[in-house]
Amino acid sequence: MIRQTELVDKIRAYDPDADEDALNRAYVYSMQKHGAQKRASGDPYFSHPVEVAYKLTQYRLDTASIITALLHDTVEDTDATLDEIEELFGLEIRGLVDGVTKLNRLEIKSESSKQAENFRKLVLAMAQDLRVLMVKLADRLHNMETLHYIPKPEKRQRIARETLEIYAALAERIGMRRMKEELQDLSFKELFPEARESILKRLEFLRKQGKTQVQRVEEILKELADSGGLKNIKIYGREKKPYSIWKKMESKGVTFEQLSDIVGFRVITDSVADCYHILGLIHEKYHTIPGQFKDYLSTPKSNGYQSIHTAVIGPQQQRIEVQIRTDGMHDVAEYGIAAHWGYKQGQEKDKVSTEGKQYRWVRELLEIMEQSDGAEEFLEHTKLEMYHDQVFCFTPKGDIIALPRGSTPVDFAFAVHSGVGFTCVGAKINGRIVPLKHTLKNGDQVDIITAKTQTPSPSWERFVVTGKAKSEIRRYIRDQQREEYVTLGKAILSKTFKQEGHDISEKMLEPALAVFKKKEADDLYAEVGEGIVNRNQVYDAVFHTRKSESHGVKNPFDVANFKKKAKKSVPMPIKGLVPGMAIHYAGCCHPIPGDKIVGIVATGKGITIHTMDCDTLENFADSPEKWIDVAWDASGQDDLFIGRLKVSLSHETAALASVANVIAKDEGNISNLKITNRSSDFFDLLIDVEVKNARHLNSIIASLRAKNVVQAVERV
C-alpha cells in the first residue's frame, strides 16, 4: 500500500503548489472512516482509495481530484456524510465525491436498472466536472485488477461486461487510451480467457520471430526522415493489444494469421509541418493502401485526438500501419483530457471546460437523458452513441458534424438541431437528392430539406444510428401515443360517469388522483386509455362505491396488482407484423436478433422471416406485394435463436471437443452438428448453435477463430 508521504511527494513532484495539508487530512480521514473494513482479497479496505489516488497521480491530476479519490467510498461505505465532507474539505470536494458515489440507497429491483441509474448520475456529474469521470475510471481500473478475488463467476462476468461496454468506451471518449486499453484487457481476460491466452501465445511467437523485422522498419523510416532533412524524429513500433486484435478478427471475419497489421508504427515530430513532410516521404517511397488514409490533424476526433493514419505496402511487401503526430498530440493521444492538467512550475493550472468542442458529446448525453423514458433506455441510447467509428460530414456552410459510421441524413439532421430533425423531409448529399435511409460517407456535404408541417415517422427508428436521433423519435412517438390515450381515456370515463348521471370534471376526479397517485387528470386519462387502470376503479375511487365488484374486480384500489396483471402479456420478438398471422424463421438463412430482416407472406403459412441478404429472396423479386417491412423488438426478449456455422477443422486429436468447449464457454448451445466433408488433413462441419442474438453469435465466431485447430469459420 502506498504510504502517506509517498503519495504527497508524488503529487508535489508535478504540482509544487499542491495543498499538502488537505491531502494529509484526507488520507487520515479516509483511513479512520474505513477502519477495520476488509476487501474481498483480505486487504484493508483503505488500500483501495489509496491505490485509486495513486493511479490518478500518474495522469498528473490536481489536488481536488486526488482528495476525491481518497474519499470516494466514504459516503457509500461508512458513516461519513456529504455535509461533513463539505465542512472539512469544502464545497468543490463535496460535489466531486457526490458525483462518484453510487446510488446504493435507491430501491431498484433489477441489477440492470441499478446500473443504468448509477450511470445516469455519473453523466450528470460529468456535465458539471469531468474530473468525476476520471476518478470513476481509476476506481473501476483498480476494482478490475482485483476482480479475481470475487468468488461468484456470474458477478465477475457482469462487472467485466459493464466495464467493457461503458467505462472503457467512456475512457476512449475522453482520449485516455492507456486507461481504455487496461480496462479492455482486464475485461477480456475475465470474459474470454481462452481467446486472450491463445492470442498472447501467438503474439509471443511473432515477437521472437519478427523482432528483427520491426527494427528494420524503424531504421528505414528513420533513414527516410534523415533524407528529408527532418530532425528530432522519434520512431517506434507498437504491438496491438489482444482485445484490439480479437475485435479485428471478429469484425473482419479473419483468423489471426490473416491479420497483417499486428504491429503499428508511430512517428513523433516537432511540428504539424513535419507531420505532412514525413507523410509525403513515406507515400513517395511506398504504395499506399486505398481507403486506409485518415487525416485527424485537420479534422480532430470529438475527444480532441489528432494524428495522421496511413497504411502502405512497406519493406519486403509487408503491410505496415503508420501514425504520425507531434509531441503535444501524442500526450493527448495517451492521456486524453488528463493531458490538460499538466502543470509547470510558476504557471497557472489549466482548467478543462466542458464547453469545448471535444466535450460536446457530454452535452449530447444530457440531451439523450432528457428524452429517454427511464434509465435503461438512456443506457441503451448511450451505448449506441459511444460505440461506433466516426464519419465526418459538412453542413452547407462548411461546419463539420461528426457522426457514428452508418449514420443517415436523419441522424445528421438531429445532430445539427432537434428542430431540424423533427421537420426533416429530404436531403441532398453533394447536391444530389437521396433517400433518408442513405448511408453517409466521410466528406459528404449534407443539405437537409425541411417543412414546417413535417413530423418524425416511426419508421425512422429502424434505420437511424445515433442515440440522440433514436431518443428524440421515441419521445415523439410516446408523446403522440399519450395524446391518443388521453383522448380515449377521457371519452371512456365521460361515458362511464354519464351512464350513472354525472358529468365528469377535473375537480370531481381529485379523490381518484390521490388514490392512483397521479399529479393531474391527463395522467389518469392516459392510463385508462392504455388499459392500465379500469374505468370502474376510477368511478369507485370518486364515489366510494363497490360498483367494480360486480364487474369481477376484487380490489379496485389495488393498483399494483392490476399493473402486474397488465404486464403478463409477452411481447412478440418482431415489430411490424400483421396481427393474428403466424410467423416462421427461414431455415435457409437462420435470422437472429441483430440481423436486418424482411417478412415474406405465404398463403396458408403466415409470414416467413428472412435476413435481408438471403439468396432465397431473389425468388420473390417479382412479387413485391409479398414483402413486409419488419424489425426485431428487443424489449424483454430472452428467447434463443439458431445460428448456423460452417467450420473447417484441422484433423487433430480433440479438435471437435475444443470447438464444443469454446461454444459452451461463450454460453452457446449446440443443437445440431453435421460433418459435410472429410480429408486426411481437414474436415468441414455444419453446426447449429442456440444464441441470444447476432452479437452473441459473432462473439462465438471470434473465439473459434482464436483456436489453433480452427482453419476457417463463417456464418451460413
Keywords:
Hypothetical protein af1432; 716 residues; six-stranded mixed beta sheet; 21 strands; 26 helices; alpha+beta; four-stranded mixed beta sheet
Task: For the record, give the distance between the C-alpha atoms at the N and C termini, rounded to a whole number.
Answer: 53 Å
CATH superfamily of the domain at 4-193: Hypothetical protein af1432
From the structure provided, what is the oligomeric state, counting identical versus distinct chains? single chain
Poorly predicted segments: 103-110, 342-359, 546-572
List how many beta strands DSSP finds. 21
CATH topology of the domain at 4-193: Hypothetical protein af1432
Which architecture of the domain at 4-193 per CATH? Orthogonal Bundle
**Helical stretch count?**
26
Could you give a short account of the major beta sheet?
6 strands, mixed
* Rg, Å, rounded: 30 Å
Structural class: alpha+beta
Strand proportion, as a percent range, falls in 15-25%
Helical fraction equals 40-55%
Please describe what this structure looks like:
- The protein is of the alpha+beta class and 716 residues long.
- Among the domains are: 4-193, Hypothetical protein af1432 (Orthogonal Bundle), CATH 1.10.3210.10; 497-566, no CATH class; 574-632, no CATH class; 641-715, 2-Layer Sandwich (Alpha-Beta Plaits).
- Strands 1, 2, 3, 4, 5 and 6 form a six-stranded mixed sheet that branches.
- A hairpin with a 3-residue loop joins strand 14 (597-602) and strand 15 (606-611).
- It is globular, with a radius of gyration of 30 Å.
